[in-house]
Design a protein that fits this description.
Layout lengths: L3 E8 L3 H12 L4 E4 L8 H4 L3 E2 L12 H9 L6 E3 L5 H12 L3 H29 L10 E5 L2 H16 L5 E4 H7 L9 E5 L3 E2 L2 H14 L3 E3 L4 E7 L2 E7 L2 E10 L5 H5 L9 E10 L10 E3 L4 E5 L4 E9 L8 H12 L12 E9 L6 E5 L2 E8 L5 H17 L22
Parallel strand pairs: 1-2, 1-12, 2-9, 4-16, 5-14, 12-19
Antiparallel strand pairs: 3-8, 5-7, 6-7, 10-11, 11-12, 13-16, 13-17, 14-15, 15-16, 18-19
Length: 422
């Protein structure tokens, strides 16, 4: 006998899963969420909380394989792969390389910007409308450079953002340092992005979970999926260590654990775990007044109201790998190149999380062919917080058959061969 029956079962209670549950509930559906650990305990907890429609430029692009080759073998590099025999990783890397051309780069950038621009607007509406206490800050973001090559990169980025209708402006180093005493003289200049925003991610997921709860959304934490059961071409239930859950529609928002959960259905999901790192401390003095992206270091800084966080880097190590302590030190050393005080006093809180990375840097959103009541809302790469709210709304629209508010075509799960059931 089933323990619970609802219109929609959402697997995963991170920022994306909670957003899906919220909009499904608003569409009139009864919703149950299953979470293998605690709400927001994955990547949604310790990330930098940036909402950046300016970050449309995808990882794959012309010349990227050669540029990243050196970093692959540097254990503290911004893009590192731990050596291991892994056929799925090899296939993922091959797919990534296939997307490193001008045509795909421009297509992916437009698709990313469409979703992030929508999510930026919807996130603010959600925060204001539901009165979410998550330290939302709509004050923009500054990208910094400490080299002439870095300044050239930022200038080129600004021109490319014009084509996507993203506002930006270059700022010289002297003007920056006058406005921001936290910056070192090494900073040559920056690119100001007034449309970007930030929030504290752990508070956002906690507050959004409470908003869902008030609306009647059910939640089961510490609940591990053992099997997904299908009958006559549809999913009918999820068997878990907490019982069996039945639903009319299923939404897979389990991040890096998605491939493991759906493997028994014959699906091969091209998601790899990209480990990210962050350090959280008290606010340094002086403290930056707005989020900063440190271009050459490949990392970012977010000042919250009561704390301060630095983070970044990408390491393909597998979803159960232990963190590399050297990468935490690399964050401090990277921030020291730009900031007078890279961290506040005292021992910082260390965190690492697993980003769900796809070969084309686009999420999977939509139904699986021949299993029409299974919807994916996962694979948001490094932009989960920037895309989650729009992804939740789009998923709810696709589940209910309503007109999508953005074009869903670029995110179709069946664009990957392994996602096509036979």
């Amino acid at each position: 006998m089933a323990r619970n029956r609802t219109d929609a079962l959402v697997i995963g209670a991170g920022a994306v899963g909670l957003s899906c549950a919220y909009f499904l509930n608003r569409a009139g559906m009864s919703v149950q969420i299953l979470e293998r650990r605690k709400v927001g305990a994955g990547t949604s907890f310790g990330n930098l909380g940036l909402i950046t429609p300016s970050h449309a430029k995808p990882l794959p692009g012309p010349g990227v394989p050669l540029k990243t080759l050196k970093s692959l073998f540097d254990p503290t590099g911004s893009f590192h792969v731990r050596p291991r025999l892994d056929g799925e990783l090899a296939r993922w890397m091959l797919g990534f390389v296939r997307n490193c051309n001008s045509k795909q780069h421009d297509y992916i950038a437009a698709a990313r910007q469409q979703l992030m621009a929508s999510s930026r607007e919807l996130t603010e509406k959600l925060v204001r409308g539901e009165k979410l206490d998550c330290q939302f800050n709509d004050g923009g973001l500054m990208m910094l450079a400490i080299s002439e090559a870095g300044m050239a990169d930022l200038s080129a980025l600004g021109k490319s953002l014009e084509k996507l209708a993203v506002e930006s402006s270059e700022v010289d180093g002297e003007g920056l340092r006058e406005a921001e005493p936290s910056l070192r003289k090494s900073v040559l200049g920056g690119l100001w992005l007034p449309g970007d925003a930030s929030l504290r991610p752990d508070r956002f997921t906690a507050e959004l979970n409470w908003a869902c709860h008030k609306r009647g959304v059910q939640l089961q934490e510490d609940c591990e999926i053992k099997a997904l059961n299908q009958d006559e071409g549809k999913l009918v239930s999820a068997f878990t260590d907490r019982g069996t859950y039945e639903a009319k529609h299923f939404v897979m928002a389990a991040g890096v654990w998605t491939p493991e959960i759906v493997r028994s259905l014959g699906l091969r999901v091209p998601i790899q775990a990209g480990m990210g790192y962050s350090l959280t401390s008290v606010r340094p003095d002086p403290c930056p007044s707005f989020p900063l992206l440190l271009h050459e270091a490949g990392m970012a800084v977010t000042p919250f109201e009561d704390t301060y966080r630095i983070g970044g880097t990408m390491e393909f190590a597998g979803p159960d790998a232990e963190p590399n302590p050297k990468r935490f030190m690399a964050l401090i050393e990277g921030a020291q190149r730009y900031l007078t005080d890279p961290l506040g006093i005292g021992e910082p809180e260390k965190w690492h999380g697993y980003r769900p990375m796809t070969p084309d840097d686009l999420p999977l959103i939509g139904a699986v062919p021949k299993l029409p009541n299974l919807f994916f809302a996962c694979g948001h790469n490094m932009m989960g917080m920037s895309m989650c709210v729009a992804s939740g709304r789009l998923t709810a629209e696709l589940v209910t058959g309503r007109k999508p508010h953005v074009d869903p075509e670029p995110y179709r799960p069946d664009r990957f061969r392994g996602m096509q059931l036979t």
